[in-house]
């Protein structure tokens, strides 16, 4: 059976805005798939350290995952080592964390982590900041490795119980309750503060602010994992993972490390040609406009997804080139999964509708 699941993080608009946001949206292929499918829903804790789509991906990859309501003991998915390997970095020992150069906004009485996608660091600028930070890490006895402009890695073998939060789960909130907790938290805050002070007066930040760009005034740490062999692909739900060009969350490509085959920069036709027995397509274009509440941009991105993905994959389902197609939509607390088949599409009396995105 040829089956593809499509993960759409933040494909669910906020319940209080959903009817207004979707009122005039014309996406007939998506409406058909939603109306002629069955649906399952799950709710997560609003204070969880990972967003629903992040926790869902971790569970599909065979990684340890906390229960949706277990906020006290939750941590971000242990994805750092897989992210290193996805970037071509060799790692065979130690416990590693991901680090992202970030902008923390000073609100009236608290600090807020802004969307990392808005930092817009070039490789040249990131290298300058990395060169400033690395002596501070060396002084603290920590190895710091450059992955790309937006993602670095730190080794901390003695912080294996440190509970961390994903940057998207933290984005837009008071960072206090999402800061790392547990073994190593004080050492990390000390090192983080030293980096922040070193960057505060760096000429690069002055130049960025003069150009209307966010200053890079902090680092966000998460994703700690041991450099053990990846779980057998038999432990993962999917044998094939597909991702389009220009993914806004580059680290999501790391989940391809847990599948037998990972295909990047693909289009709908590539998936149909591959005829996956059970494949996963990750479409993350809706995350950024949802996190920043830019709903006109969110709608435009959904229209693009309609033409690039939903319409051709619906056609493949109708023609028999696909047997089943599932849509997994999330927001910051919910997951809705809908599955359509060639048989369910024959329910011609069921009119296309987007009501599956309303509840």
Could you walk me through the main structural features you see in this protein, from its secondary elements to its overall organization?
- There is one protein chain.
- With 359 residues, the protein is α/β, with parallel strands linked by helices.
- It has two domains: 3-63 and 236-350, Alkaline Phosphatase, subunit A (3-Layer(aba) Sandwich), CATH 3.40.720.10; 82-226, no CATH class.
- The chain is 31% helix and 19% strand.
- It has eleven helices and 13 strands.
- It has helices at residues 18-22, 28-35, 52-60, 80-86, 123-139, 167-170, 185-200, 203-210, 268-274, 287-291, 295-319, and strands at 3-8, 38-43, 95-102, 104-106, 111-113, 143-146, 152-155, 218-226, 240-242, 261-263, 279-282, 324-330, 334-341.
- It has a seven-stranded mixed sheet, covered by helices on one side.
- It is globular.
- The two termini are 30 Å apart.
- The relative contact order is 0.24.
- InterPro entries: Regulatory_RpfE.
- This is Regulatory protein, RpfE type.
Topology record:
Layout: E1 3-8, H1 18-22, H2 28-35, E2 38-43, H3 52-60, H4 80-86, E3 95-102, E4 104-106, E5 111-113, H5 123-139, E6 143-146, E7 152-155, H6 167-170, H7 185-200, H8 203-210, E8 218-226, E9 240-242, E10 261-263, H9 268-274, E11 279-282, H10 287-291, H11 295-319, E12 324-330, E13 334-341
Parallel strand pairs: 1-11, 1-12, 9-10, 9-11
Antiparallel strand pairs: 2-13, 3-7, 3-8, 4-5, 6-7, 12-13
